[in-house]
Amino acid sequence: MTQYGPRTTCSLPIEGTRKETSSAPFPLPSIGSLQMAQDTYHVPVLESEIVELFASLHAGVVVDATLGGGGHAAAILKAARHLRVLGIDRDPEARAAAGARLAGFGERVLIVDATFGDLERVILEHAAFVGAEPIVGVLMDLGVSSHQLDESSRGFSFRVDAPLDMRMDTTKGETAAQYLARVDEFELVRLLRANGENRFARAIARSVLADQPATTGELSAAVERAVPAAARRRGHVATRTFQALRIAVNAEEQQLVDGLHAALEVLSVGGVLAVISYHSGEDRVVKATLHEAETGGCRCPVELGCVCGAVHRYKVLKASALLASGEEIERNPRARSARLRVAHRVLA
Asked: What does R_g of the chain's alpha carbons equal in angstroms?
């Protein structure tokens, strides 16, 4: 397996997890945190589809590489007693919420402080938890959680004026305001265009860099000044700018590439990789990566068949992404933009 550079990781086993997997016990959740975890932290999208994909797998370990509040993990563990979950998340609040939500599953869960780009290393470092069982599934639910959007102090949303932070882990790294203080116009334009802000990318970049916003309200105002009212799309004019900055601050582009390739390496035959993305840039990366895995990188003309010796290790479930139903979107409007892509590991 590909080894990544050294990085400090703190595993956080929930109450009842095997002691050998970590030297530090997970803190006992308060009643308030239990309620938050169970009711308001995040409503998992495409939950029934995810459960159907993973519950039919053979016994083994599912890696929830974007654990969040533990909603998907709880649904999988409840539906499939033969599965265990190794959960990864870099957000301390998310890990606390997931720990409370998943406490009842005991030794079937291990929560680790890391990013999904560190997936291979996490598996190697927690071999005691994985044991001899295969990695039968990897789940990635990209983007931000409902809780992160609703918590104004995190700076992910333009709905409330707050410090311009946007870090998934607020204990390390630079904030969005600090990023804007050092980035040049060329790079910011590239970032905005990569995230769908094509026509007004340069105008927005110049306005934002001139203002040097320190709060979400100041950033939103800078974007609004750069985009004529008559040219604004449905929804808030700053949506794509906020999204682009979040991706840059948390290095999500590289994390996604690293995480996808790591997942493709660690899955056992018959295993499933499921990725939920929320915007076209992410979805393009996921689609291209899964296509490469399915074809083995083959570029031979279709009419000649494959003569290059490419190894086909994966089968993509369907060419188009799976979408949330109208009923789910009505219950959870944030599911509207969700795109689920799935690949199965097959014999080479």
From this structure: 21
Residue 148 confidence class, pLDDT cut points 50, 70, 90? low
Buried (b) or exposed (e) across 331-348, using 16+ Cβ within 10 A? ebebbebbbbbbbbbeee
Cβ–Cβ under 8 Å, residues 24 and 97: no
Which residue type sits at 114? Answer: A
Angle at 346 between CA 58 and CA 131, to 5 degrees: 40
Cβ contacts of residue 340 below 8 Å, gap of 6+? 46, 49, 50, 274, 275, 276, 321, 322, 323
Structure tokens at 326: 């109208």
What is the pLDDT confidence band of residue 153, given thresholds at 50, 70 and 90? low
Q: Does domain 169-249 have CATH number 1.10.3720.10?
A: no
What is d(CA 31, CA 112) in angstroms, rounded to the nearest whole number?
Answer: 22
Burial of 203 (0-12, 13-18, 19+ CB in 10 A): middle
* 10-147+252-345 CATH: 3.40.50.150
DSSP state, residue 215: B
Please answer whether residues 54 and 272 qualify as being in contact, where contact means their C-beta atoms are separated by less than 8 angstroms.
yes
Residue 2 pLDDT class (50, 70, 90 cuts): very low
Within 10 A of 309 (CB to CB), how many other CB atoms are there? 8
Give yes or no for residue 264 having a pLDDT over 60: yes
Domain boundaries, the chain: 10-147+252-345, 169-249
Q: Tell me what pLDDT residue 46 has.
A: 96
The burial class, CB within 10 Å (0-12 / 13-18 / 19+), for 318 is: exposed
Mean pLDDT, range 86-98, rounded to an integer: 94
Q: State yes or no: pLDDT of 157 exceeds 60.
A: yes
DSSP 13-71: PPTT--GGG-SSPPPPPPHHHHHIIIIIS---TTHHHHHHHHHTSPSEEEEETT-TTSH
